[in-house]
Amino acid sequence: MQIARGAIDKALITWLLMIGCLLGGLWGFATIGRLEDPAFTIKNAIVLTQYPGASAEEVAREVSEPLESAIQQMAEIDTITSSNKPGVSRIDVEIESTYDGTELPQIWDKLRNRVNDAQGDLPDGAGPSIVNDTFGDVFGIFYAVTAPGFTDAETHALAEFLRRELLAVEGVADVEVSGLPEEAVFVEPEPAITANLGIPPAAIVNAIANANVVTPAGSIDQNGQSIRIAPPVGSDTVEQIQNLTVGVQGEVVDLTDIARVYRGRADDPDRIIRFDGEEAFTIGVSGKSDLNIVDIGKAADARIDQLMSDIPYGVEFKPIYQQHEVVEESSNEFLVNLATSVAIVAVVLALFMGWRAAIVVGTTLLLTVVGTVFFMAVFGIELQRISLGALIIAMGMLVDNAIVVAEGMQGDMAEGKSSREAASDVAGKTQIPLLGATVIGIMAFAGIGLSPDATGEFLFSLFAVIGISLLLSWVLAITATPLLGHYFFKRGGTEAGSAYNGPIFRAYAAVLRVALRLRWLVVAGLIALTVVCYWGFGQVKQQFFPDSNTPLFYVHYTLPQGADIRRTASDMEVLEDWLAEQDEVVSVATFVGGGATRFMLTYAPEESLPTYGHLIIRTETLEQIPPLRARLEDFGATALPQGEFRSERLAFGPGGGAPVAVRFSGSDPDVLRALADEARARMEEASDDVQNLRTDWRQRELVVRPLYAENRAQTAGIAREDVATALASATDGTRAGVYRENDRLIPIVVRDPAAASGGGAHLIDQPVWSEPAGTFVPLEQIIDGFGYDVEDTLFQRRNRVPTIAVEADVPAGVNANAVFTEVRGTIEAMALPEGYSMAWGGEYESSAEAQQSLGRQLPLSLLVMVLISILLFGKLRQPLIIWLLVPMAVNGVAIGLLSTGLPFSFTALLGLLSLSGMLIKNGIVLVEEIDLTRADGVPFREAVVRASTSRLRPVVLAAGTTILGMTPLLTDAFFASMAVTIMGGLGFASVLTLIAAPVLYVIFFPRAWRADAPTKTA
Description:
One of its GO terms (molecular function) is xenobiotic transmembrane transporter activity. The chain has 1018 residues and is of the alpha+beta class.
C-alpha cells in the first residue's frame, strides 16, 4: 500500500487530518473532564446495627454473626470484616473486584435484602440494621466553616442553608455536613420528689414520648368531600415540655414541679471538629463523575462568594482540601511539561538532523498529542493522574515512528530521490514493521488495562490513552510526516550511502565489526553484566505508591480504650497550640472521634472511636514536611506519653492501612492476644525500624458490674432489667422521645440530676422502681456492691473468624518493604496452635494483590506480543533475537534507580512495561532492516553493518529525545521513579539494540556468516 505517497498526492486529505487533529485537540482541552484520580468505584458497604447494653463479645455473637452468615451467602462477596464495640456492630462488606460500578446498585439491593431477611434472627433490642453503600463517595471540595458566637441552633440552620444552596449548583452530586454540635433536651427529675410522690420513671418517659408523637387523626366526609383531621400540635418548645403533665395514681402532676427541663449540648458527642483551634463544622462537596471537577469547584466557590452577603458577619470558609485547584494545577503542570518535552525533542532533532527535520518530527509529535486529547474527549476519558501519566509514558514511544520515516526520507532525498519516491520507499519498508511494533507496545499495557478487576478499572485509561496515542502516531507518521517532509526536506545529489559516511557512523561501524568478531565475548559480557544488574535490582528499594506532592500530612493519636472524647479533644489542643507556633504551618484541621470526610479517593477515614484524634496539617511547601514531622513526633512523644502518637505522609495510592501488618485468626481471644504479644516482641527484636507497634483490638477496658443479689431483688419485685434501667438513668440517661425543630429531631433525655456531674459515687444511692410494690427501693438493698472486670471492647472479626492484627509503622524515609523483609522470617517461624492461622496485611498484601492481578493478565498479552512478532517476520529466529534483548532492559533500570536512590514503585513498573515496548520496536525495525538489506543482495557481513549503521541515527535520536523529554518529570513525586526507569533503561536499551541485536543476529545465522567469510589468499 502506497499510503505515504498517497498522503503527498492527496495533500488536501492529509491537511484535513492534520487540521482536524489540531482543532479537535484544542476543543478537547477546552471540554475534557478533569479529575484528580480516575473515576473509580470503591466496592465497599457498611452495615451498622445498634444493640444497646450488650458487650462487644455479645454484639459479635448475637448481632454480627447472624448478619455475616446471611451476607456470606452472596456469591459476589470477597471479604467480610466486622468491628464490634459495646452496643454497636459495624460490618464492612467488600465486593469481588471483578464486578464493575454498573453492577453495584443491584448488588447493594441484594445486600439489603439479605440484611433485612436476617433481622428476625437478631435479639430483642437490636437493630434495625442500616446499610450504607455511599461509603466510597469522594467529597473533594472540602471546607471547614467557623461561626464564632453562633448558638447551636443557629449553627445547624446555617449548615442546612449552605447545604441546600450548594446542592443547587450545577454539577454537584452531593453535599455532606459533619461535626455539627450535638444537642439534647434534658429532663432531670428530682429523686426526692419522685420518690415521695411515688412517680415511676416510666410514667415520665411515657408522658414525654406520647406528647410529641405523630398520630393520624382520621378524616370526615362533608358534602362529598373528604377532609383530613390534623392531629393536635405536640410539644415544640422546651417551655411546652416543661408544662407537660404526668398522671400518677389518678392525679395529675406538672412536669415542671418535679423535674428540671433544659436544652444543652450532649455530654459525649460523636464528633468534635476544630480548624486552627476554633470550633468548626465541615462541608464536603462531591461532583458528578462525568463532569469537569475544575468547573464544578469554581462554580461552588462562586456560589459561596455570592452567599457571603446573605450570611451573618463572622462566618468564614477555611479550605481543607480543594480538589479542583489541585487538578487544575496538575493539568497546567502537565501542559508545561508537555510543551517542554516537545521543545526538547525539536532542539535535539535540530542539532542532529537539522531544523527541517525538527519541524517535521516536532509537528508530527504535537499533532499526535493534541489528537490524542481529542479522542480522549470523544470517548469520555478524563484528564487525571493516570491518563496524564499515560500521555507522558507514550511520549517516549510517539516520536519513534516519525523519526524513522523522517530520517529515511531525508537520507533518500539527499541522495537525489524525489519526495514521493523517498516516501514510497521508506514507508513501504517500515510501515508494517512499525505497525506491528506499535501494536506490541500497546499490548504491553493490555494486561493492566483489560484486567476485569479493580486494577483494570483504575488503570483502564492508561491502556486506552497509550493505545490511542500510539496508533495515531503511526497514522500520522505515514501521512503527515511524508507530507511535511515533501515541503521541508531538500533534494540533493549526493552519492548513495554517503549520508552514513560521517565520522560518528564510521566509528560505530568499526566498533560493531569488532563486536561481531568477538561476538561470544560480547555475549558473555552482557550475560555477566545482566547477572550483576539483576543482583543490583534486588537492592533497589521497593515502594507501592510514592508520597503525594500536595503539602499535607496527618497525625493519628489514640488514647487507651475507655477514655472519653473530651479527654481526647483536650490532648489534641496541646498539639494544636504547638503547631500554631510553627512558622511553616499554614493550617491545622482537627477531628476528634473519627476521621474526616473522604476528601480524596485514596484517603480512608478511620473508624469512629472516642479515643481517636486526627490532624490534617498543611504546610507552605512539600520540603517543609520532613523536618516539621520529625519535630512534631518528638514533641508528641514527650508531651502526650499517655497516648499512641504517629504521623503519616499523604500518599498517591490507597491509604488508611499500616505499612507492616500481620493478622492472626482463631476462636479464643486470649490466645489471639498472646500471639499478638509474641509477634510484637519478635518484630521489635528483628528490626530497629518498626515503630508504633499496636493491635487493632486495642487495650482491654475496665468494666463496672453490679453484683445482683437475686433473692433480695426478687423479693422486692425487681428484675435485672430494672437495675439496668435505673443505672442508665443515673448515668447516660434514657431517651424518651424527640423534640422537633423544623427538620431537626433533637433527642429528649431523662436522667438523674447527678448524672451530669460524672463519677459513680452516687450510684449506690440510686433508687430503683419496683412495679409490683409500687415504690422505690434503694439500689444498695438489691445488690452486693460493685465488681470490676476487664473485657475486650473492640472485637474484630474477618470472614466470621475472630482476627487480631499487629500493625507497625516505619520511620520517615525508610522503605516499608525493607522492614517487612527483616521481620518476615521471625513471624512466619512462630508456632501456631491448632486451628489458628496467620496472614500478612499492610503494604505487602496490597502490593501482592496488585501484582497478582497483573500476573493473571500479562501472560495473555505477552503471548499476543510474541505472536505478532512472529507474524511480522514469518520466521522464528528473528523474533527470538528481539525477545532475548528484553530481559537485559532491567540493566539500565537498576543502574538508574540505584544511582538516584529512588524506589521501584508502581509507576516505575509502568515505565518498565513501556521500556520493553520501546526496545522491541527498535529491535523489530533494526532486524527487519538487516533482512531487507540482505534481500537486496548485499553480502551478509556487510548487510549487518550497513543496516545497523542506517538505524543508528533513528535509534539514538529516539532514545535521546525520550530521555531528555523525561527530565521535566524528575521533580514530580508521582512520576520521578518512572522517569528514571525509562531514562536509565532506554539508554542501556539503545546499546542493546545497536550492539547486542546485530551480534545475536550473526550468532543465529552461523552458516551465512561462515559463507561470507573473506577468502584467504596464499
